[in-house]
Amino acid sequence: MNAARQEGNDFAESIARDAPTLWLEAVLASRPRMPSDLEARLLQGSALPIDFLLRDEVRDALRNGFWSALERARG
After folding, report:
1. Short-list 44, 36, 39, 33, CA closest to 12
2. Is the distance from CB of 70 to CB of 12 less than 8 angstroms?
3. CA–CA gap between residue 48 and residue 52 (Å, rounded)
4. How far is the C-alpha of 20 from the C-alpha of 46, rounded, in Å?
5. For residue 51, with 0-12 CB atoms within 10 Å meaning exposed, 13-18 middle and 19 or more buried, which class applies?
6. C-alpha torsion sign, points 17, 2, 62, 32
7. DSSP state letters, the chain
8. What is the pLDDT of residues 6-48, one digit of tens each?
9. Contact 30/70 with Cβ under 8 angstroms?
10. Residues with Cβ < 8 Å from 68, sequence gap 6 or more?
11. Is the peptide bond before 32 cis (omega within 30 degrees of 0)?
12. What is the pLDDT of residue 33?
């Protein structure tokens, strides 16, 4: 689970670095629902085995890492 959370965190940090503030706010406003294009990129870019990605708890950990990092980026 820690690996999934870290992947979600790293993904969010990578996109938040260059994202406009208004975009960050719009994405955060959609929480807990992650925009489908971002979720697809997160899952496609994952280094985790596909059988792990099929588990709800792993996808939840990816999302939690994503949201935590995005909140920090908004800072």
Report:
1. 39
2. yes
3. 6
4. 24
5. exposed
6. negative
7. -HHHHHHHHHHHHHHHTT--HHHHHHHHHTTTSPPHHHHHHHHHT--S-HHHHTSHHHHHHHHHHHHHHHHHHH-
8. 999 999 999 999 999 999 999 999 999 999 999 999 999 999 9
9. no
10. 5, 8, 9, 12
11. yes
12. 93
Distance between CA atoms of residues 48 and 57, nearest Å? 13
Token pair of 42, please?
């997160």
In terms of Cβ atoms closer than 10 Å to its own Cβ (0-12, 13-18, 19+), residue 30 is exposed
User: How confident is the model at residue 50, as a pLDDT?
Assistant: 95
- Give the Cα separation of 4 and 64 in Å (integer): 9
Binning pLDDT at 50, 70 and 90, where does residue 1 land? confident
